[in-house]
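[agent] plan:
  1. take the single chain provided in the ticket
  2. run structure prediction with default settings
  3. attach structure tokens to the ticket
  4. add a short note for the reviewer (M.T.)
[agent] executing step 1
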Amino acid sequence: MRGKRPTANTPTASRPKKIVEAQGWTVDEDGTIILTVEPNTVIPNYCIDKD
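[agent] step 2 finished; step 3 output follows
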């Protein structure tokens, strides 16, 4: 390639990803904690007696 200039592989300008605060978390099968954007769904564990 005599006489030709090599072209540099420059990355294209890309918009950086937005960092979002975790609102919830879950535990994977192997015990890995995964942070999530959506909050956890909470199911209350109580009983209301109507006497």
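[agent] step 4 note for reviewer: The chain has a mean pLDDT of 79.
[agent] ticket updated
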